[in-house]
Amino acid sequence: MMKSQLSCILFTLIAACGGEQSTPVEAANPYVAMFVPKPYVAPAPSASFGEVVAIGPAGPKVEITKVEPVVAVIPDKAVDCIKLGKEAEAKGDHARAIELFTAATKLDKKSAEPHVELARIYIATDKKALAIRHGAKAVKLAPESSQAYNTLGRAELLRWNYDAAITDFRQATELNADNVWAWNNLGLVYLQQKQYQDAADALAEATSRKGAEGYMWNNLGTAYEQLDQLDDARDAFEKGGKLGSTAAVASRKRLEGVDTIKSAKLDVKPEKTPEKTYDVNDEMPEVPPADVEETEPASGTN
Asked: Is the predicted pLDDT of residue 180 greater than 90, yes or no?
């Protein structure tokens, strides 16, 4: 009995020390199994510690591209800034146009052209102080420029300074008698001031020059109508209508059979406002070199 117990203890010790008969002992005595070392099995990978576990079929590989913000480039030459500024203005991008024209004023401090363009934008956006500031600067830089005075006159009209506007438009016509827009603007101011004879004289100058448009003939007809010169008014309205002025066509029709506006009862009141505002389409002349005195071209488009 004693010998049998010693044999069991001996087998148990051999099994515990990793003997080759560990498995039979484990099978024969289940209570010994807890002391028998089992083979090491590496744990399966998990999502812990930053590993990526794919679930389901792999999708297409997506590459993320960093998009750099678009930065508007300002040219290093004034002429290029002015060119791009006009393109931006034509598209209605006033902010970009102002940025470019302002850069041009810094790149070429002797050029009046960017100041004229800035004044035009500020006139269109009804920013009186800025329009007058740049219009005055253009005149200072180019005192012989009809275009600069015409622009300053338009700026003065924003604050209803009719006397200053008349002076500027007069100066523009004296510097360039073929500046059809300056003559038209002068006539419009006189119309607003009810100085109809002066208006008719100025508008007759405008319509007698190359580049006269239909609305200018309509304005002349309006001045003649207020002077009760209806034959002249009808003739001006007819010419304006042929050049595309719908207001001139309507005015001509309204005066059909009318002998005098002093006694006739018109169904429609005569035009009291200009058909077109003071916005003009004339271009600034080419800027001469700094050592050359600026002169106005002889053509009607300056």
From this structure: yes
Please choose, from the candidates 285, 277, 268, 264, the residue with its C-alpha nearest in 3D space to the C-alpha of residue 148. Answer: 285
- Domain membership of residue 140 (yes or no) is yes
Assigned domain for 14 exists: no
Q: Domain for residue 267, yes or no?
A: yes
pLDDT value of residue 7: 55
Alpha-helical runs (H) found in the chain: 2-16, 22-28, 78-90, 94-107, 113-124, 128-141, 146-158, 162-175, 180-192, 196-207, 214-226, 230-242, 246-254
Domain that holds residue 162: 74-176
Give yes or no for residue 5 having a pLDDT over 70.
no
Domain count, the chain: 2
Q: At what angle do helices 113-124 and 94-107 cross, to 10 degrees?
A: 160
203 contacts 216 by C-beta, under 8 angstroms: yes
Asked if residue 124 and residue 108 are part of one domain, the reply reads: yes
